[in-house]
C-alpha cells in the first residue's frame, strides 16, 4: 500500500509540474499556440498578411520565451510586451535584417517581440526613395500600420511601446512612419538613413539616429543621389536631428550618452515635458553599415521612451 501511495503521489507531482509549465494565470490556463491566427510559441515564425491589394505581404515574427512562457490571462500575455519593427535596407530582405541586427538575442534577453517585414521587391517607399516601392507608389505606411494593429489588437504587443527602426532605405521608412503615424509609434531608430519625405507629424516622436562620417551611400553632410532616377542630393543628417528636436521643442543635443562602440560619439537632448528625447550618435569613420553597438543601444533607448497619452 505504501508503495502504491508513493507512486500516486509522484504521479500527482509530475502532473502538477506539467500544469505549471503550460498553464496561464494560477497555472490552470493553457497557453495558446496562436492568438487570432498569430503564432504565440517561442521562436521565429514566417507570416503572410493580406493588405487588401493583389498578393500579400510577409514578415518574420520573433516571440521570446519570456513572453511565450510567461503568465497568460484570457488567452493573452498578462503583460503585453513591447514591439520592435526592424526594416531592412534596399536590396535586402527580412531574413538579412534578422541576421544583421541580432535583435533576436536581445528579444530573448529582455522579453520584447520583434517583427521583420519584407519590403516590396526589396525596397521601401520612404517618400523620395527608393526603387520599385517608390515607383509603384506602394502603401508601405498602410502595410506597417496594419502589422502594428494586428499585433496590438491581438493583445500580443503593447500599443504604447511600439518602436520602428531601420537601416538605409528602411531607416528612411522609419522616418516616414514617424511622420505619418506618430500615434502608432513611440520612438524610431535610424541607422544610415535620410529624411526624404514630407513630414508634418501630429505629435513628436522620440528618435535615436546613428550615422557614419564616411558613409558614401547616404553622405553624412548630404549629397549623392536620392534614387537611380532622382539626382537630388540627400539632406545632411543634421537636418533630421534638428527637425525632430525642434518638433518636440527640445534643446540641441549636448548631454553626453555613453556609447558602446569605439569611435561612436552620442549626445542627447534629454527628455522634454512630453517624455520625448532625440539622441544623435556620430560614428567617426563609420561607413554604410549597421554598427555592432546599434542594436543594444537602440533597445536601451526604446525601453526608456514609451508613448505617453
TrEMBL record:
Pfam families reported for this sequence: Esterase_PHB (PF10503)
GO cellular component: extracellular region
Keyword Hydrolase: yes
PROSITE patterns from the UniProt entry: PROKAR_LIPOPROTEIN
Stretches the record annotates as Disordered: 21-42
UniProt entry keywords in alphabetical sequence: Hydrolase, Signal
Signal peptide bounds: 1-16
GO molecular function, one term: hydrolase activity
Chain coiled-coil ranges: none
Keyword Hydrolase: yes
Protein name: Polyhydroxybutyrate depolymerase
Protein source organism: Actinomadura geliboluensis
Phylogenetic placement of the source organism: Bacteria, Bacillati, Actinomycetota, Actinomycetes, Streptosporangiales
Amino acid at each position: 500500500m505504501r508503495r502504491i501511495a508513493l507512486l500516486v503521489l509522484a504521479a500527482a507531482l509530475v502532473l502538477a509540474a506539467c500544469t505549471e509549465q503550460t498553464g496561464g494565470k494560477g497555472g490552470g490556463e493553457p497557453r495558446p499556440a496562436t492568438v487570432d491566427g498569430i503564432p504565440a510559441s517561442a521562436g521565429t515564425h514566417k507570416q503572410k498578411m493580406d493588405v487588401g491589394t493583389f498578393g500579400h505581404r510577409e514578415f518574420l515574427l520573433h516571440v521570446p520565451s519570456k513572453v511565450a512562457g510567461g503568465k497568460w490571462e484570457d488567452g493573452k500575455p498578462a503583460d503585453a510586451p513591447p514591439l520592435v519593427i526592424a526594416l531592412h535596407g534596399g536590396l535586402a530582405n527580412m531574413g538579412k535584417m534578422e541576421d544583421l541586427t541580432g535583435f533576436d538575442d536581445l528579444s530573448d534577453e529582455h522579453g520584447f517581440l520583434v517583427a521583420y517585414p519584407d519590403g516590396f521587391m526589396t525596397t521601401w517607399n520612404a517618400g523620395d526613395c527608393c526603387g520599385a516601392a517608390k515607383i509603384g507608389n506602394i502603401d508601405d505606411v498602410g502595410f506597417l500600420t496594419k502589422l502594428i494593429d494586428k499585433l496590438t489588437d491581438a493583445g500580443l504587443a503593447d500599443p504604447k511601446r511600439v518602436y520602428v527602426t531601420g537601416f538605409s532605405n528602411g531607416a528612411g521608412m522609419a522616418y516616414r512612419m514617424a511622420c505619418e503615424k506618430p500615434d502608432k509609434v513611440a520612438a524610431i531608430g535610424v541607422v544610415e538613413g535620410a529624411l526624404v519625405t514630407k513630414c508634418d507629424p501630429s505629435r513628436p516622436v522620440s528618435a535615436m539616429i546613428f550615422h557614419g562620417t564616411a558613409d558614401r551611400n547616404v553622405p553624412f553632410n548630404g549629397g549623392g543621389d536620392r534614387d537611380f532616377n532622382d539626382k537630388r542630393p540627400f539632406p545632411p543628417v543634421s537636418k533630421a536631428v534638428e527637425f525632430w528636436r525642434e518638433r518636440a521643442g527640445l534643446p540641441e543635443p549636448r548631454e553626453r550618452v555613453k556609447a558602446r562602440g569605439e569611435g561612436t560619439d552620442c549626445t542627447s537632448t534629454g527628455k522634454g515635458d512630453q517624455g520625448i528625447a532625440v539622441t544623435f550618435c556620430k560614428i567617426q569613420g563609420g561607413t554604410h553599415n549597421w554598427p555592432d553597438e546599434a542594436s543594444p543601444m537602440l533597445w536601451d533607448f526604446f525601453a526608456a521612451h514609451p508613448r505617453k497619452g
